[in-house]
Amino acid sequence: MFLTISTRGDAAHPATDLGYLLHKHPDKAQTFSTSHGTAHVFYPQADAERCTAALMLEVDAVALVRRSKGRGRGGAPDAALAQYVNDRPYAASSLLAVALSGVFSSALRGVCKARPERADAPLPLRVEVPALPARGGPDLVRKLFAPLGWTVTAEPVPLDTEFPEWGDSRYVRLVLESEALTLAEALRHLYVLLPVLDDAKHYWVASDEVDKLLRAGEGWLPTHPEQKLITSRYLSRRWSLTRQAMERLELVRLAEADDSEVEAIDNAVPQDSGAEDEEKPAPLAVLRREAILAALRDAGAARVLDLGCGQGQLVQELLRDVRFTEIVGVDVSVRALAIASRRLKLDRMGERQAARVNLVQGSLAYTDKRLKGYDAAVLSEVIEHLDLPRLPALEYAVFGHARPRTVVVTTPNVEYNVRWETLPAGHVRHGDHRFEWTREEFRAWAAAVAGRHGYEVGFVPVGPDDPEVGPPTQMAVFHVRTEKTEKTENAEKTEKAEESDGAEKAEKEAKAA
Hints:
elongated; seven-stranded mixed sheet; single chain; 19 helices; 38% helix; seven-stranded antiparallel sheet; alpha/beta
């Protein structure tokens, strides 16, 4: 990952003053550690007429995966490989922006005690980025940088120079030139717009990102024609944060137009008054556990299997209800079971309570006689982690062999994914998901399973039930078919057949008359 900043000079104002402004000596090659690799700063050219500073970031791919675990959004089925084989070590992105702010922090703030007059003055600047991902193409690059006073050259990088008919990649070679900007302004433009063009960040975007954006965007973002796109992309399309940033930017714009301070505009509520907190909606995981517990209670289950129990959140909730007399958590991961044991504090649990719970290691792809004879089994957010060819094995192990009286299955509703603010189009909710089903696909699978193994099935929405795309989680509740159920169904079929025959007979009589 590479970026160069160049300037011109003369005898009165040598170009090597760039070293003072960046706080990096032109005669030295310096190395800095970052959270995801090593940054190197060196000067390919440094004389009175021209000076070029280079920032090279060597990304540690393994550290990137470890430190970003659980924060990114991946696709299936090659998400595990994509964590390591990608463009992150080579293409300018939020990684380079973070390195830029860390290595050149004083220059970003416009601080230079040795040459303060140079820090405040415009410089002849040239910035080059050999590989910049640009979702939106060269046109968007120009729309973002040109209003800020840059002359923009964005050359598309072909997919393969030997096969020009394949077309261009999403990367460009970027050259920015300006005579009217200070170095601090240039660095702040890069800090914000590099991740905006990549349209992704390597870290979780929290509320403090709004403050970072407004600090770096001071003086240019409130009036930028692409303000909304910049804000949305920089904040990873988190709608609540984007709205907060846009409101604050509007206050800045109004204050500048009125030639006053922001505090003078935003004075409807005193600074020290405490606003009432709005009631936050319950997290989806909590709603899911509540729906599962309600289904188990309705079924009158006392002995329950949590298949794919993970870190034991549902087991913990089941233990709080005394009607569940025996709870077994099953998971293939020994590490997950160890975490569940610590969460439940099994080593300090009273004897009577400990007798109600058991954690066992096992694979749901194989039959296991230990799982037979229970009232109910729960498969909460489990099936989507299996490759589709292995799903029939789980189906037989649970419905055919263990055969609890009730089975509760929850899985994501892929149709709802368009409502997630931070989930890019076409991606699944978790990097380990092998598939995510529509409501129709899930209902078809559940009906087929019920038919093959002698169950009846009903469906329950979990979370807000959107009129267009349905709920975020879909839940199926299976019950073993009984003689009573079959008799009722047969009676209903007979009644419908008689009604149909009666209608036919009446129609024939009417025609004859």
